[in-house]
Amino acid sequence: MEKILVERTASRGIAVSPVYYYQEPDLTPDSRMICQGQAAGEEEIFRNAREKVIEELQVLAEKSEIFAAHQEIAGDFTLEEGILTKIRTEGKNAQAALQETIDEIAAIFAAMDDAYMKERAADVRDVGKRLMAGMKGIELPDLGNLDKEVIVAARDLYPSDTVKMDVSYVKGILTEEGGITSHVSIMAKSMNIPTLVGVKDILSKVQGGMMVCMDAEKGEIVLDPDEEVKKEYKARKENYEKERQILVQLRNETPVTKSGKRVFLCANVGSLEDIRQALPMNIDGIGLFRSEFLYMENDHFPTEEEQFEVYREAAKLCPMELTIRTLDIGGDKELSYFPFEKEENPFLGWRAIRISLEKREMFKEQLRAILRASAFGKVRIMFPMIISLSELKEAKALVEECKAELRREGKAFDENIETGMMMETPASVLLAEEFAKEADFFSIGTNDLTQYLLAVDRGNKKISDKYDFMHPAVLKAIRHIIAAGHSKNRKVGMCGEMAGNLKAVPALLEMGLDEFSMSAGSIDYVRKLVLAAE
């Protein structure tokens, strides 16, 4: 018997079942070089595989919109161009060209600081895995064929693996890789499958059929437990299921503290599918819609119409509140079709609102699309990385300019649409009172705010222990922002990871935070804390 403690809970829950060892097929690409006369044949191999994969994804997209995004990746011009260039000019065979191109695109996402964005690398690799299997003529394993209760142990799982799982049989998931904001983690939460990710060397410690107990909430795994331990975990599981039922019932309760303060519980999303996953939690709205996905999953700057269609659908899905953050690229978020100059300190460089205000026509296309979508729900515009009143006023002036254009064109929009800002820089904290006079609302971005206030790179493992959003300086800054916003009757929310941290919630409630926006899987637990708070 061995007990393992891990930190990365992707989906809470408890399971006691034997292991199903998920064995991935060998998808190592052929390493041979080709001559010029063989290029056309290799291109044909790629195109045939892609055509088949797109057809498969079209079927899966009917079950989950995640696969609609995968379809776009498979048909993406950047992917195709990268592969064909390597075949034609570098003498690479189709398999090698595919692997290198997938690695390059996935690396762009993996290098990002934002955890949600970082995990999109897995979606790129999922598509790459499908294409490679098609080229090699290999049938991928199907978790839909399981016929007994198991805990799946794998190096990593992709959405195309997870979507086929039957919750009657898959009682838990353990992976060596992956992250808590991956689409697999999101899907596991929606299916209430206990999931622990990033469990170091787990595959070397388990075998197929080995009995395992796991408590994903506490981050505990017990390998080959004795009867007494199994009995303990089964009792825990029973208690957990009862608590889950209570939490589900609490979704019908309006989140109000005992003293009568109404607290708004919202979700952070990056796609329409994310909104659909969050709606069953009885949310008050979307506190953060990451619009950069429309740019990053494209091969060109998305047009006004392309953006409008997505924002309109989002507003229809969630008419109570939809806060769209304007384009937040730069720093760790790059575009394949728009080269950024190399910067010494990209997180302190040309990013977010600085790019938007410089590329005004691009910015106006996004603002016009958001404004037009506001005719279909309570849409709000949120500007990222503001450090001066002049930036905020300039951004608001462009909104008014777009309004005037839409009026002349006879296109509907909400004349009273709110414009707010992220509070994520030391400058925004120090100028909070002045900003409260200009912004209709604040949303505290604790991820960047903590990093900037403490001068700690949250991606640097050597100093990761110093990255602490419960640091007194961070808490003092948050209290100041809330007080400044309330002094002008502004609603103050939070959309950073801290908003869904159960240890931080009581302190934030005491400070008077109005809105908590978080991953959908945390909403039930935060609601319970709100209802219990004084």
Summarize the SSE layout with pairings.
Blueprint: E1 2-5, E2 9-11, E3 14-21, H1 39-61, H2 66-74, H3 77-90, H4 94-110, H5 115-118, H6 120-136, E4 150-154, H7 159-162, E5 170-175, H8 183-190, E6 195-196, H9 202-205, E7 211-215, E8 220-223, H10 227-250, E9 264-269, H11 272-278, E10 285-290, H12 292-296, H13 304-317, E11 322-325, H14 353-358, H15 360-373, E12 379-383, H16 389-409, E13 418-423, H17 426-430, H18 432-438, E14 441-444, H19 446-454, H20 472-487, E15 491-494, H21 505-511, E16 515-518, H22 523-532
Parallel strand pairs: 3-4, 4-5, 5-6, 9-10, 9-16, 10-11, 11-12, 12-13, 13-14, 14-15, 15-16
Antiparallel strand pairs: 1-8, 2-6, 3-7, 7-8
Helix pairs in contact: 1-2, 1-3, 1-6, 2-6, 3-4, 4-6, 13-15, 15-16, 18-20
- Average pLDDT figure: 90
CATH class of the largest domain: Alpha Beta
Backbone structural class: alpha/beta
How does CATH name the architecture of the largest domain? Alpha-Beta Barrel
How many structural domains can be distinguished in the coordinates? 3
| Helical stretch tally | 22
Q: Largest sheet, described in full?
A: 8 strands, mixed
If you compute it from the alpha carbons, what radius of gyration comes out, rounded to the nearest whole angstrom?
24 Å
